[in-house]
Amino acid sequence: MHISLDGFVAGPNEEMDWIHVDDEMFEYAGKQTDMADAALYGRVTYQMMESYWPTAADQPNATKHDIQHSKWYNNVTKIVVSKTLSQNNLVNTKIISGSIADEIKKIKQQPGKNIIMFGSPSVVHVLMHDTLIDDYWLFINPLLLRTGIPLFKNIKDRINLKLLENKVFDSGVIVLHYERN
Question: Which of 57, 76, 59, 60 is nearest to 68 (CA)?
């Protein structure tokens, strides 16, 4: 999850134009996605991803990252939290429209690799509230937004974390990998 230094994942109008990504971060993130066989999204993030990644590798100007991530995206199970999307004609996609916490608990009990999340702060808030996030990968961008959508919101109980890894990218973005204790 990309985050500003003051804890926001998007600006006050949901803008994310401040997020810095480059080849160095794509390489790093690619190693994380390889360890996951499912991706969890809210409806808005899913529709954004779905509009690009299924055919990104087929574009004439596709980068190495586009090709790799497109292949991964097309093969993983997409889990989408939405009360408005229907399951009709969705390939390799499961819609959760009931209790997010109950459904995620069931999914986590199934065999497989990791479930990874990109964005979707409203879903993250629900998962934090119910202590269902096992690992936090925070890409801290070097800026202060002052206002917007906070990452840390709606937390019911204290969540103790253990730092497993940190890395400073040439861009000044820092990634912190924490696991829940």
Answer: 57
Which superfamily, per CATH, for 2-180? Dihydrofolate Reductase, subunit A (3.40.430.10)
3-state SS of 28-90? HHHHHHCCEEEEEEEHHHHHHHHCCHHHHHHCCCCCHHHHHHHHHHHHCEEEEECCCCCCCCC
Residue whose entry in the numeric block shows the structure tokens 């009990």:
109
10-residue averages of pLDDT along the chain (181 residues)? 96 94 92 94 93 96 94 96 88 92 94 91 93 96 97 91 98 97 92
Longest dimension (CA), the chain: 49
How many residues can be counted in the chain? Answer: 181
Give the C-alpha separation, 127 to 20, whole Å.
25
Contacts of 68 (CB under 8 A, 6+ apart): 30
Alpha carbon 78 to its chain centroid, in Å, reads 12
Phi, psi of 53 (to 5 degrees): -70, -35
Predicted model pTM: 0.90
Q: Are 151 and 121 in contact (CB under 8 A)?
A: yes
Considering only CA atoms, which of 129, 97, 155, 100 is closest in space to residue 115? Answer: 100
What is the CB-side half-sphere exposure of residue 88 using CA atoms within 13 A?
Answer: 3
